[in-house]
Design a protein that fits this description.
single chain; 270 residues; Aminopeptidase; 7 helices
Length: 270
């Protein structure tokens, strides 16, 4: 069997980069043999998120993971630090689902050596490419806006109480991007149609926190979308185009605003 590439990359001559670290579903055969039925179902995938942003192809740079987060989580600290200390979560090489169930057969969880291998084989090359794209864009425009694109089930009691808001914007409590950029994103996303929160349960994962360095010209935001507003999140994970139409329009407005903000920043730096 031919080896599956770690990511799909489309470069564009513009200041915005969309990143999709959790939309992949591929699991190499050796790892798949260690997983149980629940793990093989990859239910915690960020289902159909690239489809939501399809309009942006040819307007922004695009980096999309092909491998499942169950192989290695590209949005977790490789040193093992928790994103939300004291709260439930999943690790660098997840061994449980969001619901708290084992995803490995008995005795087959990855040990330290396996975790190190996965970091070298899967995590590091992806992040090398992500760094390359951020630097390429920043060198060209003086600024790079990174939008980390995610989704999650609307209800995951182990991770948060109640029903998740429709749109969850994370800016690491304002540390990962310029405040004017965060305000612009809120202006676009906040309306009566979709519920929106900023920097609540999802403040941004490791990617947002690690790469978002506005003082150097790199501005990172994470958008977590509740899956119940665009797909069947209960039975078959199917995309619902009619249900997703207004969301797609809102995301297009967001990407347009990010582009405008970044280009205005470039003008002020001249």
């Amino acid at each position: 069997m031919a080896e599956v590439l770690l990511y799909q990359l489309q470069e564009f001559d513009g200041p915005v980069l969309l990143n999709f670290p959790h939309s992949g579903t591929y699991i190499p055969e050796k790892i798949a043999a260690q997983l149980n039925e629940r793990g093989l179902a990859v239910a915690d995938t960020d289902w159909h998120v690239p489809k939501l942003y399809e309009f942006a192809k040819g307007q922004v740079s695009w980096l999309q993971a092909t491998h499942s987060r169950y192989v290695v989580d590209l949005n977790r600290d490789p040193n093992g630090s928790s994103l939300y200390p004291g709260q439930a979560g999943t690790g660098f090489c997840p061994v449980e689902s969001f619901d708290g169930y084992d995803i490995y057969d008995d005795g087959k969880r990855p040990d330290r050596a396996e975790t190190s291998y996965r970091q070298q084989r899967f995590f590091n090359p992806y992040h090398q490419q992500l760094r390359t794209q951020i630097e390429r864009i920043k060198n060209r425009f003086g600024v790079c806006v990174l939008l980390d694109c995610h989704s999650i089930k609307s209800e995951v009691p182990r991770l948060f109480e109640g029903v998740l808001p429709d749109l969850n914007l994370g800016t690491f409590s304002g540390a990962s991007c310029d405040p004017d950029l965060a305000s612009a994103a809120v202006d676009v996303l906040g309306n009566a149609e979709f519920s929106l929160v900023r920097d609540q349960r999802f403040k941004g994962g490791w990617i947002t926190r690690h790469y978002g360095q506005p003082e150097t010209g790199v501005h990172a935001l994470q958008l977590e979308i509740s899956q119940n507003i665009y797909m069947d999140e209960v039975e078959n994970f199917e995309f619902q185009p009619k249900q997703a139409a207004s969301l797609r329009q809102k995301l297009q407005e967001l990407v347009n605003r990010l582009n405008i903000w970044a280009k205005n920043q470039r003008e002020t730096m001249r």
